[in-house]
Amino acid sequence: MRAMVLGAQRTPLRAAEVADPEPAAGQVLLRVRACAVCRTDLHIVDGDLARPKLPLVPGHQIVGEVVGGGERFEPGTRVGVPWLGWTCGECRFCVAGQENLCDRARFTGYDLDGGYADLAVADERYCFSIPTDYPDEQAAPLLCAGLIGYRSLRLAGDAERIGLYGFGASAHIVCQVAVAQGRAVFGGTRAGDAETQEFARSLGATWAGDALAGPPVELDAVIVFAPVGELVPPALRHVRKGGSVVCAGIHMSDIPAFPYDWLWGERMIRSVTNLTRADGEEFLAHARASPVRVEVETFPLEEANVALARLRSGALRGAAVLVCDATSER
Length: 330
Ligand SMILES: [Zn+2]
Ligand SMILES: [Zn+2]
What we know:
The protein has helices at about 40-45, 90-95, 135-140, 145-155, 170-180, 195-200, 230-240, 275-290, 305-315, 325-330; strands spanning about 1-5, 15, 25-35, 60-70, 80, 85, 105, 120-125, 130, 160-165, 185-190, 205-210, 220-225, 240-245, 270, 295-300, 320-325. By secondary structure, the protein is of the alpha/beta class. It folds into 2 domains: about 1-140 and about 295-330, Quinone Oxidoreductase, Chain A, domain 1; about 145-270, Rossmann fold (3-Layer(aba) Sandwich), CATH 3.40.50.720. The protein starts with a strand and ends with a helix. It binds zinc ion (ZN) (2 copies).
């Protein structure tokens, strides 16, 4: 099969012909139809996350068609594969229903080969059914940008006025969910990024502007999607007493020191780590009902490096998705 392979961190992916993966017991073999590009993929390629399997096929927002293997899905079924690829089921976190924190978890496109390829295998217990009304390329970003964004929103509590700082793939989905729930959304972008600010307003944001300066009103919570620790202290200043700042990414640059007074008033800073399968089921039901509009820029599989470069430079609007058309190639 064709695959885009990471041989070593801080080097571009290379297009390669590799052996087809074979499903082990309990795994499905999928023909990949689309795989969305996540900022986490960029952190893996750029070396911010230290211990990927190498060589690695990245990609953890896979929409694929079941070709064989497993017992849960009929051949031909369209399923989604998320970041959480396997958990032990035995550690204190798994037992407590916090499989997102599993000590021995394995992650798709990090510990396990992912979806930047024609074919992929996945443990069927961690796959999701995909809402039928979403085309492949729009369904793919739901699997991490949407899902982890949704978990972040849940962890922001019942905030009525919520800031989304870093208005990319995840925020553009979360914005719509939050607006549908009757919340007011405040979209924070880089200073002067009028295009993204307009994009945020077009999705229902009440306000959009420079995240460092913040909106003209006090917020109940801020979710920081940008991997920029520099945003955390100002975000704290933008939330009311008892409000929270939720850091949604897997990696962030260092958070600068700030006066304790900014945290005082029972303000909270917390991270969001991975997902549970329950998060996925809940979010996908929500997306189906809303419905959430997913804005994508598609790239052929071979152009994965171009998609990553566009994400790195902040040039994307919505989510980047690799579209695999294996049938026409083979
Ligand atoms: Zn565990
Ligand atoms: Zn992701």
